[in-house]
Amino acid sequence: MRIRATVAAVSGALALSAFVAPAAHAAGGTPDVTFSNMKVNKGSSMVVGTTKASFSVTYTVTHAASLPASDFATVPIIYRGSSVTAPSDLFGSDDAGTCTAASSTVLNCKDTLVFTVGGDSDLDNSEAGSWTLGAVAADKDDNLNWVGGLGTTKILRADKLTVNAAPEPVKKGKTVTVTGSLTRANWDTHKYGAYGSQSVKLQFRKKSSTTYTTLKTIKASSTGALKTTTTATVDGYYRYSFAGSTTSPAVSATGDYVDVQ
After folding, report:
1. 3-class SS at 243?
2. φ, ψ for residue 207 (rounded to 5)?
3. Residues 57, 74 contacting (CB under 8 angstroms)
4. At CA 93, angle to CA 88 and CA 97, rounded to 5?
5. 3-state DSSP assignment of residue 11
6. Which of 4, 40, 64, 158 is most buried by a 10 A CB count?
7. What is the pLDDT of residues 204-214, one digit of tens each?
8. pTM of this prediction?
């Protein structure tokens, strides 16, 4: 949970002195602003491997005419749980958003979410999946306005898929053995490890074609290993393709070419 870092971002922008958790904000004393059009990573999932990863955030802020833009700062956040005021997890930018005026009361803002993996890691494996978008605004009087329910995003564990088809070359009608492996980022160990027992498609593309067709579906072993056989017919490329899961994205291996003689 990164509540303190999030508040530090708005505090630093306005030289606020107090740390205030989300649940501590009071009705009636909050900056008169609303948030809309928030997008993280241009609407795509955030895929994080075993190194630092950064993702853009854009959003719109509408503020009261009586509240000058120079008198408050904002930070985008993502959180999990039923409420932004009592989240089970919360993460925000370490810096306040940079905004430009679209009108006298509307600001177009941008910021960056940065995740570190390894050492003082921001993420652990249990945090992969769906998150809710939100934001916090702070004014010069130490008032904080926490806003949730601005949309959803996903943080996914990056995965990798390899393939090797043999023998090369092969005679027409003979057996081609296709091996490979499916691994994904482990945010707890900071390394890639086996992604076992997942369904993976074996696909083939003729040399003269740009389209892969599925030959069969197999399951990775408990160690993420893949192995199956097929019959050689024409020159082309073999690959494995994984459709993804709720915690990892879809991924396809680079096709391995086999010359059929």
Report:
1. coil
2. -55, -35
3. no
4. 130
5. helix
6. 40
7. 999 999 999 99
8. 0.88
CA–CA separation, 220 and 37 (whole Å):
40
DSSP-derived secondary structure letter, 260: B
Residues 55/46, Cβ–Cβ less than 8 Å:
yes
Asked if residue 132 lies in contact with residue 40, where contact means CB atoms within 8 angstroms, the answer is no
Q: How far apart are CA 18 and CA 104, in angstroms?
A: 29
Query: Between β-strands 46-48 and 152-157, what pairing exists: parallel, antiparallel or unpaired?
Result: parallel
Pair of tokens at residue 10:
């708005």
Report the SS3 class of residue 200: strand
d(C-alpha 201, C-alpha 230), whole Å: 13
Q: What are 118's two structure tokens?
A: 């390894």
- In 3D space, the residue among 127, 72, 78 whose CA is nearest the CA of residue 97 turns out to be 72
Taking all residues of the chain, what is their mean pLDDT, rounded to a whole number? 90
Strands (E), 41-71: 46-48, 53-63
* Percent of the chain whose pLDDT exceeds 90: 77
Residue bearing tokens 């177009």: 108
For residue 74, give the nearest of 61, 87, 56, 89 by alpha carbon: 61
Q: Quote the tokens at residue 93.
A: 């930018």
What type of residue is 202?
A: L
Q: 3-state DSSP call for residue 132?
A: strand
DSSP per-residue string spanning 93-109: -SSPPEEEESSSSEEEE
DSSP assigned state of 15:
T
CA distances from 227 to 201, 239, 253 (A): 11, 12, 14
